[in-house]
Amino acid sequence: MSDNQVAMVILLQHSNNLSTGLSSLSDPALGRAGHTAAAVVLGLILVLGFLGNFLVLMVFSRFPGLVTPVNVLLINISASDMLVCILGTPLSFAASVGGRWLTGSYGCRWYGFSNAFFVSLVSLSLLSLERYSAVLGRTHSNSDSSQYRRAWLAVAASWLYSLVWTLPPLLGWSSYGPEGPGTICSVQWHKRSTAARSYIGCLFVFCLLLPLLLMLFCYGRILLAVRAVARQVSRINQSSAERREGRVLLMVVSMVTGYLLCWMPYGVVAMLASFGKPGVVSPAASLIPSLLAKTSTVLNPVIYVLLNKQFSRCLLNTIRCGSEAPPTQAQHTLASRRGVWRPPPTEEQNTVHVMFTSRDQQLQQPALVLVAQYAT
Fold first, then answer.
1. 263 and 296 in contact (C-beta within 8 Å)?
2. Which protein family is it in (predicted)?
């Protein structure tokens, strides 16, 4: 065989390995123990994420009275997270068990596309905006139908916005391919072309940084407002006001911390790999931020739903297979329509009227009804 023929065979083999994305892209430094550890973590994420989000959706289905306009976004988050657990995580779990990517280039692109679909990420920021509007809105004249319409529009906007940013790699602006040790696929942020770098930069700003800033602004304003109300009502019921402020503070810290823990390491590593020195992020090290990002499917049901007292009571009642709604502290009378329970107001849903001065009339009027509500 001549030298030209040998070179041609090597070139064809290399091209075939790139197109299939199989064992040649696996990181030998990770080792069998590393792949096993990643498989265990992914298996836990798969099981816990699926069960947690399934329970959330089951409780909302069992108790339709919980489906408020704000909770419509929580349902959207749980539904999108469960889809990720079903359509994406099993592929990376199987790849970690086998030590290499198993479903070829088309499966790799599908996995990258489905896992990069930032529906839950965008919904988290829209949820903060919806809560900000509900707590600090100056008017409450909107009908229930208009509030539900706005919530469903926010759900549609989250899917459309996510589609706008996940389709470009399929159309030529950057691409989806093997990531890290070759057992996970994502946007190929290790490429250093102008198109790849511009896409990574836009993704970091519009799908990570802006949602984070929106959450910080909305939850920060909510926390300040609750503190102001707590100071005003402290003479009447100081202990209750302090407990309520503490719960809201816990909610804000949990939500922002969960967001930063799951998504910020991944974004920082992607930016370093794309704009930093070549080789600054090893394939094995890049696996950790990817796993942290996937834990959001487990943390979201806990932080955004299960910390809600009302929802927790309904969840326990569902697990016990009870047919009646759980009793509340105030022992409210539960009104039923066609066997559907409507949850009574809880302590966190009590309203506090705050008086503001109108700029035009310089008159005091109840312009704001502040709902110091914990994770509703």
1. yes
2. Belongs to the G-protein coupled receptor 1 family.
Enter the tokens of residue 56: 């959330």
Q: What is the pLDDT of residues 221-264, one digit of tens each?
A: 888 887 777 677 655 565 666 666 667 677 777 878 888 888 88
Q: Smallest Cα–Cα separation from 188: which of 15, 14, 13, 18?
A: 18
Task: Provide CB contacts within 8 A for 332, sequence distance 6+.
Answer: 344, 345
- And the tokens for 367? 């312009």
What CATH number has the domain spanning 3-326+339-371?
Answer: 1.20.1070.10
For residue 84 the two structure tokens come to 């990720």
Distance separating alpha carbons of residues 39 and 93, to the nearest angstrom: 5
| Size (the chain), residues | 376
Report how far apart, in Å, the C-alpha atoms of 77 and of each of 52, 57, 59 are: 12, 10, 14
> What residues does 369 pair with on adjacent strands?
353
The string of pLDDT tens digits covering residues 289-348 is 889 989 989 988 888 776 777 888 888 888 887 545 554 443 343 333 333 444 444 433
